[in-house]
């Protein structure tokens, strides 16, 4: 058994395609196939079920691949420890950000962060929470920015801020007349929601104590964008709940935006890394850059009601 063979089975599990896996490892497809067969023979078990399309691990193979990922992660950690100091701010880092955070938070600090750290290269992807969690576990991402808590033993959460939820209501909706809103009194009718899979959708439903999409009677619209929901409210009817950063760039006198009564419902946003991640200086600098660009009350709220999504 070699580290190279472990890299091959991890690549094949990631891509579920022999040619793509081989290309990711910079070897030919026959070389990768032969080495995986050798490993299976040595271990006396089939790691992949080749009758499935796309190819998939066997039940035993899933355990082998999980162990292989952990071994490779520890090897890479050892290499980093030997080759660089923990406070060295250089290298390439893969970051996953949930779509309801990315367009509002990332533009605030990315330029100043990259200007201050020219030796760091960031590869950033907008993906949903569950995929970020799996990609960190599978060593496909280094850092996630998403809503917490996650209650995952293999992951470490570094809280950033608590972001209030706000009501965004159409002019003819009853909520439009309110100065502050009691979260327990939100109406069922007219609520616009994001698609299934967005953690923000689950949080909104938890605030409203609803487990179903109760939109307008003659129109159902599933969206993956907060901006689409805001436009539906502006040009149609109903209301939605949005995180505060999603409306801070808008006209601050917009009467569609209504705060909740204290304690405000909030979502906790955190940096999430694998427990084996050892670039503490990167985490500290990244966190400091973010905190320097968000409203003070996100960090200093004395009373709030943190809404979970899991």
UniProtKB/TrEMBL annotation:
Gene Ontology cellular component terms for the protein in this record: protein-DNA complex
InterPro entries the record matches: LysR_HTH_N (IPR000847), LysR_subst-bd (IPR005119), WH-like_DNA-bd_sf (IPR036388), WH_DNA-bd_sf (IPR036390)
A family per Pfam: LysR_substrate
Keywords: Activator, DNA-binding, Transcription, Transcription regulation
An annotated Gene Ontology molecular function: DNA binding
Ranges for domain HTH lysR-type: 1-58
PANTHER family (alphabetical): HYDROGEN PEROXIDE-INDUCIBLE GENES ACTIVATOR, TRANSCRIPTIONAL DUAL REGULATOR HCAR-RELATED
Protein family according to the UniProt entry: Belongs to the LysR transcriptional regulatory family.
Name this protein carries in UniProt: LysR family transcriptional regulator
């Amino acid at each position: 058994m070699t580290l190279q063979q472990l890299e091959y089975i991890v690549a094949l599990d990631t891509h579920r395609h022999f040619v793509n896996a081989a290309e990711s490892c910079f070897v030919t497809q026959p070389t990768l196939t032969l080495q995986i067969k050798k490993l299976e023979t040595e271990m006396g078990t089939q790691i992949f079920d080749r009758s499935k399309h796309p190819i998939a691990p066997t039940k035993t193979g899933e355990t082998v691949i999980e162990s292989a990922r952990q071994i490779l992660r520890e090897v890479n950690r050892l290499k980093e420890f030997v080759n660089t100091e923990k406070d060295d701010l250089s290298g390439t880092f893969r970051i996953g950000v949930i779509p309801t955070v990315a367009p509002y938070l990332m533009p605030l600090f990315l330029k100043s962060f990259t200007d201050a750290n020219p030796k760091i290269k960031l590869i950033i992807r907008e993906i949903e929470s569950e995929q970020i969690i799996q990609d960190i576990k599978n060593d496909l991402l280094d850092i996630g920015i998403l809503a917490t808590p996650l209650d995952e033993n293999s992951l470490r959460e570094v809280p950033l801020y608590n972001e209030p939820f706000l009501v965004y209501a159409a002019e003819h909706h009853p909520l439009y007349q309110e100065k502050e809103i009691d979260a327990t009194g939100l109406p069922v009718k007219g609520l616009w929601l994001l698609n299934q899979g967005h953690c923000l959708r689950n949080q909104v439903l938890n605030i409203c104590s609803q487990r179903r999409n109760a939109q307008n009677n003659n129109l159902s619209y599933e969206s993956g964008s907060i901006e689409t929901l805001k436009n539906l409210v502006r040009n149609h009817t109903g209301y939605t709940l949005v995180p505060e950063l999603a409306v801070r760039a808008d006209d601050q006198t917009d009467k569609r935006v209504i705060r909740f009564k204290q304690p405000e419902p909030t979502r906790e946003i955190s940096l999430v890394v694998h427990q084996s991640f050892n670039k503490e200086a990167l985490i500290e600098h990244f966190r400091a850059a973010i905190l320097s660009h968000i409203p003070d009350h996100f960090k200093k709220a004395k009373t709030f009601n943190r809404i979970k999504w899991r």
